[in-house]
């Protein structure tokens, strides 16, 4: 890890070494059809959300169908685990295999960031429990309340708005994990599992256009569950602060590893 006292030339060299590695996006599912057609895969959305916070390249692999890469990070700057319409409590074979691999990744100290399903499968892999949320579905624009200071929240206010869509939740934390934020419907919106491993239940990669598509695509289901779909859509507006957590993960966990 580079010393804070390093001069500009040394710091630039350290960053250039890190940028020879790639952020590997672990695909666990696809967005709803309308988003997939217009905006692309989760990996595309994540890369766009990270933007200039990362100057290196990306690689992708599908945890459902492809062989897992080495967990030790030799050629990997970080792993980012996507969302999915799958449910961690269903314990499908590919999920169990993914959990075993994730335990090796976390043990190796490779920076890891889970989003929604990715957040949940990390919790399950590390000894927590994921359950159907007894408070019901959370979807649309939400207000997240921080319960702890952490570099993940640098530049964010104590309460901030972002986007979410999920029906499962982390019901029990793994040993040693710390819950960093919550909403009215979910107790663990952000978790620090280890100093190099984080998860967020919300979707920092989803802009207002994407979350509106999610709401519209699930209109019938939402109405059947008693939601006012028009009210959900009316709350959607440009700008969401959750994206900052991705940037902070890159700045504070990924880049300093060189």
Automatic annotation (TrEMBL):
Residues 102-209 form the Glutamine amidotransferase domain. PROSITE patterns: GATASE_TYPE_1. The keyword Transferase applies. SUPFAM superfamilies: Class I glutamine amidotransferase-like. GO terms for molecular function: transferase activity. PANTHER family: GLUTAMINE AMIDOTRANSFERASE YLR126C-RELATED (PTHR42695). This is Glutamine amidotransferase. It comes from Sorangium cellulosum.
């Amino acid at each position: 890890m580079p010393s804070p006292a390093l001069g500009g030339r040394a710091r630039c060299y350290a960053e250039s070494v890190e940028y020879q590695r790639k952020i590997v996006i672990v695909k666990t599912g696809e967005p709803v059809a309308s988003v997939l057609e217009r905006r692309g895969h989760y990996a595309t959305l994540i890369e766009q959300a990270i933007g200039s916070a990362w100057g290196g390249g990306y690689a992708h692999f599908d945890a459902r169908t492809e062989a897992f890469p080495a967990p030790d990070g030799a050629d990997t700057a970080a792993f980012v685990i996507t969302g999915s319409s799958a449910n961690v409590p269903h314990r499908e074979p590919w999920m169990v295999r993914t959990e075993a691999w994730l335990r090796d990744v976390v043990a190796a100290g490779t920076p890891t960031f889970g989003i929604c399903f990715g957040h949940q499968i990390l919790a399950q892999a590390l000894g927590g429990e994921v359950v159907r949320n007894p408070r019901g579905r959370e979807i649309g624009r939400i207000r997240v309340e921080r319960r702890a200071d952490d570099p993940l929240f640098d530049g964010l206010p104590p309460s901030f708005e972002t986007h979410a869509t999920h029906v499962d939740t982390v019901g029990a934390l793994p040993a040693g994990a710390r819950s960093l934020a919550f909403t009215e419907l979910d107790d663990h919106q952000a978790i620090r599992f280890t100093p190099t491993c984080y998860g967020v239940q919300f979707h920092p990669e989803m802009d207002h256009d994407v979350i509106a598509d999610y709401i519209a695509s699930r209109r019938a289901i939402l109405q059947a569950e008693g939601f006012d779909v028009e009210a959900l859509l009316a709350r959607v507006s440009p700008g969401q602060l959750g994206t900052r957590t991705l940037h902070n993960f890159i700045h504070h966990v990924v880049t300093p590893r060189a």
